[in-house]
Design goal:
The chain has about 140 residues and is an alpha+beta fold. It has 4 helices and 5 strands. The chain has one domain: Aminopeptidase (3-Layer(aba) Sandwich), CATH 3.40.630. The protein has a 5-stranded mixed sheet. The termini are far apart.
Length: about 140
């Protein structure tokens, strides 16, 4: 299958993306609430949020970012009914191309330790594990 990949449009895609992310990711942490994540991404306005469509139905998403130094892949989601059709790989390649077009030289991503299926997906798409320690700090004043 060759889905249409296009920029996220809040009016057309918001509700479908929220449903997809809840089904795929299950998000329990407040800072990962789909509505909050979508609104924050749109406020930033970098144009690096894409959806895969089958007709008008959102069947996948990829959200990327670029800070002028490195690109990031934040999340890829594919509807369970459309898996094993290379849609995730197509979304990833699309985001990589968009990052390259704006001058990105290296792309980073993070996955949860022990998530072998996702690790294998990225390995199969040319990524490799780097020895790094990932650290984070939440800023609750910015989490609704």
């Amino acid at each position: 299958m060759n889905p249409l990949i296009t920029a996220f449009d809040a009016q057309l895609h918001r509700d479908q993306v929220i449903s997809l992310w809840q089904a795929v990711f299950g998000y329990e942490a407040d800072h990962n609430a789909p509505l909050l994540v979508i609104d924050k991404k749109l406020e930033f306005g970098d144009g690096l949020f894409f959806v895969a469509l089958d007709d008008q139905a959102v069947i996948g998403t990829v959200m990327a970012g670029y800070d002028g130094h490195r690109g990031w892949i934040y999340s890829i989601a594919v509807s369970p009914n459309y898996r094993k059709q290379r849609i995730g790989s197509t979304l990833l390649a699309f985001a990589e191309r968009k990052l390259s077009e704006i001058g990105c030289m290296k792309i980073n991503l993070q996955i949860m330790e022990g998530n072998e299926a996702v690790e294998n997906f990225y390995l199969a798409n040319g990524y490799h594990t780097e020895k790094r320690i990932s650290m984070g700090k939440r800023l609750p004043e910015n989490i609704a």
